[in-house]
Amino acid sequence: MNIEQQALKYLREMTGAQSAMFHDGQLEAIVELVVNNRQMLVVRKTGWGKSAVYFIATKIMRDQGKGSSIIISPLIALMRNQIESASRLGLQVATVNSSLNQYEREANERKITTGQADAIIIAPEQLANDDFVQNTLSKVLSRISLFVVDEAHCISDWGHDFRPDYRRIVRILNAMPKNLPVLATTATANNRVVSDIQSQLGDSIIISRGGLTREALRLQNVALMPKPQRLVWLLEAVRKIHGTGIIYCKTIRDCELVADWLQKHSINAHAYSGDSHVTDRIYYEKALIKNELKALVSTSALGMGFDKPDLSFVIHFQAPGNVVEYYQQVGRAGRGIDNAYGIMMQGEEDERIQSFFIERAFPTQEEIDDLLDAIAVHEGLKVSEIERYTNLSSGNIAKVLKFLSTEEPSPIFKDQSTYYRTAIDYRLPEERIARLNAIKTGEWEQLQNYSNHTGCLMQFLAQALDDPLAKDCGKCANCDPSSVLRIDVINEDVENALEFLKYRYVKIKPRKTFAKSGALAQGAFPIYKLPYKNPNWIHEEGLALSRWKDGVWGDLVADGKKKDHFSDELIAPMVQMIKSMPTDEQPRWLTYVPSPRHPNLVRNFAYKIAAALDIYCSDAVTIANTKPPQKTMENSFRRSENLDGAFTVNPSIVYSDPVLLLDDAVDSGWTFTVVSALLRKTQSGKVYPIALTSTSNQG
């Protein structure tokens, strides 16, 4: 059996279809890798079958007695899809990623080092794990027969989804034999990104490109509308479209909101994000594939590589960051069916969310200096120790460390689990960052042009990816107006959606532990006068009425903060929220957290709320020392330190009955933690925190 026959045999095993034939370019790519040991960049449309190329090539090479293949894959959901595909060929796969427990990881690393693994799928961040690289990966690199970079656009900082960890791939490739077959794959690389990938992987790399038009997709854009109208439109669309699909949102909180809205109307939908528990993610992926769910409401965590051929719709509840990201995500639909919907909605919040992502894409010089100074002064720090000595959140610490670790030359190096300062005088590459931010801003503007485009929508997407074969699709809303999904948004339904949005309270959970790890958790941090861990001084679970600028109450709160006066319109919903709180015993009095900068703002509102509830309002909490605004503190160490000694409580006007503790806004929860401890210390009853809004950026 020659290579072509062998490859076709394996394709049919992999697909389970005895009549299956290769798509244009698939067989040629396999031959180039297996026979000619070439280095290739394959740029093909979503659903073309890039994984079939590298798994069939792996199977043939293993049949020939060659070593394992390495596949760099950026998403855990994508890895799970790849493992299932490989298993159909009888390939043994070992994965290394952050979702594995210690037992699974050790078992997979043994498979790798003993040569049992036919394919090794590695998350890119694992290339920064010195222990894994030195003790596992380095032992097999000389025996690797194929190196695959899946979603290769992540290599390029010109790409829509650049990931710093991908820079380490080039370093590893430089240390490997020059005749090693290499396959880089992507569906979302324009000419600029292709050129950058080529320069990084080597000029000898050959490029295989194909047309990017997705024949099955019926693309449609929905005009900008407020969130209540959008929820109604979405609900009716999901009801009308036959089959299952994905609904994309930009934030975790919006995924939860949309999923709850659909569930409220008997639609089997669930929220999915990188923050979801791994067990839940696996369960929901399988449920969607088996058509047991109508929809998954997801962030970009469910994107690249997720393969369900009969997915009949992808709806964006909010606009993605650019047309390339949109092409990649909408391409989940219509892979194995003739007709599928790709619908992009837009929201008033989209530009604000996108601006936040662009502004926070790179660390600032101030954040870098803060971290580098701390590491230098203390002659090396573990990640768990850095929060203590910087004003950086755990997320920003991880971002700065990842960014600096991939810079050349780098101002830091890692030995075991400790980071040290090098002698490099590092300055942020402002020109490069400004260039990339300008590109992302331009891409956002291009997406706005797409949303208003009157010509073929598929052609617009293909041209944005520099597809020379781009042409009218004949199926989108502009090419074929009869294909448009038309939804009537009824006022009564909008009112119901508005009520749904108004009463989605935010839980205020008590802080029961100070820190998960590090010296502080062991009581080594000296500044705290209050034993915050005392279980008797922890507040009960409370509620916030809104999220900051959420389009409903959150907008009214923001307006009140600006005017230094909260509208009486907020009183009734606050009272309704308070009465909905589950309590062992109803609070009999109310006190509030005073503000040194707005002394009457919360106080005046507190007295109005107390009057509406017919309970007593006490000025029990007063300011002892004026501290910097709590919102300028970025982590638990700084937040709790900043509150130390900030407040005092007058025991003569503290009552033993349960109490409501009001603040205008809650973020980290540290202010409620400290003030509640002071109240409980002075023999108050149980403390129930309440706030008008939550300003937390989580999600």
Characterization of this structure:
- This protein has 699 residues and is of the alpha/beta class.
- It folds into four domains: 3-209, Rossmann fold (3-Layer(aba) Sandwich), CATH 3.40.50; 217-354 and 453-490, Rossmann fold; 363-427, Arc Repressor Mutant, subunit A, CATH 1.10.10; 503-694, Rossmann fold.
- The strands form five sheets. It has a seven-stranded parallel β-sheet, sandwiched between helices. It has a six-stranded parallel β-sheet with strand order 8-13-12-9-11-10. Strands 17-18-24-23-19-20 form a six-stranded mixed β-sheet.
- Helix 7 (167-174) links the parallel strand 5 (146-149) and strand 6.
- The two termini are 54 Å apart.
- InterPro entries: DEAD/DEAH_box_helicase_dom, DNA/RNA_helicase_DEAH_CS, DNA_helicase_ATP-dep_RecQ, Helicase_ATP-bd, Helicase_C-like, P-loop_NTPase, PRTase-like.
- Belongs to the helicase family. RecQ subfamily.
- It is an enzyme of class 5 (isomerase).
Please give a handful of descriptors for the protein shown.
699 residues; alpha/beta; Rossmann fold; Arc Repressor Mutant, subunit A; seven-stranded parallel β-sheet; six-stranded parallel β-sheet; 24 helices; 24 strands; 39% helix; globular; helicase; hydrolase; ATP binding; DNA_helicase_ATP-dep_RecQ; 3'-5' DNA helicase activity
What topology emerges from the helices and strands here?
Layout (H helix, E strand, L loop, with lengths): L2 H13 L10 H9 L4 E5 L6 H14 L5 E4 L3 H12 L5 E4 L5 H12 L5 E4 L7 H6 L10 E4 L17 H8 L7 E5 L4 H11 L4 E4 L7 E5 L5 H14 L4 E4 L3 H13 L4 E4 L5 H12 L5 E4 L14 E4 L6 H8 L9 E5 L5 H10 L5 H13 L3 E2 H7 L4 H12 L6 E4 L2 E4 L8 H22 L5 H8 L26 H12 L3 E3 L33 E6 L5 H11 L7 H10 L8 E4 L8 H13 L2 E2 L3 E3 L12 H8 L3 E3 L9 E8 L3 H12 L5 E8 L5
Parallel strand pairs: 1-6, 1-7, 2-4, 2-5, 3-4, 5-6, 8-13, 9-11, 9-12, 10-11, 12-13, 18-24, 19-20, 19-23, 23-24
Antiparallel strand pairs: 14-16, 15-16, 17-18, 21-22
Helix pairs in contact: 1-2, 1-3, 2-3, 9-19, 13-17, 21-22
